[in-house]
Amino acid sequence: MDTIIGIDLGTSTTEAAVYRSGKPVLMLNFDGKEVTPSVVGLDDSGNVVIGEKAEAQLLLAPDRTVREVKRLIGTDEMVAMGKRQYSPVEISAMILSYVRNYAGKYLDADITRAVISVPAYFDELQRQEKGSGIPGRPNHQRAHGSGAQLWAGAHGGGKPCAGL
Length: 164
Hints:
This protein is of the alpha+beta class. It has helices at residues 52-57, 88-107, 124-132, 147-155, and strands spanning 4-9, 13-20, 23-26, 36-37, 39-42, 48-50, 65-67, 79-81, 84-86, 113-118, 139-144.
């Protein structure tokens, strides 16, 4: 059976959880942390950096760094990063790709299914766009509220999971 992960793609941070041994467990990213800043940037060589590395360059390279892009999902607004313009969905997809990669490494599995949180205030267009940014298009479900809590409740036998 495929492993299903829960992703909370937040405005300022992103987390991913998996249900193990009767409880939800936050997975560690490539920096060994449970929480990833929802920040994307380009390093000096033009390579994409995500999370703490992108956040660390924000003050010195604001023209190559993007944050809080989730607020723009569902709008026509583009964001500049380096010499190029990106849609909010493209930036979110970069974060989701990072999550998919670190979750796959953490679980030693190919991640093909995810539940991604969708804020209650998102309209239908925003909900569709948030899910459309998943790289490799794994199967996904949308949920209103805290993604990790809802996911664990849905995939953990309906048990609540406080603390996520």
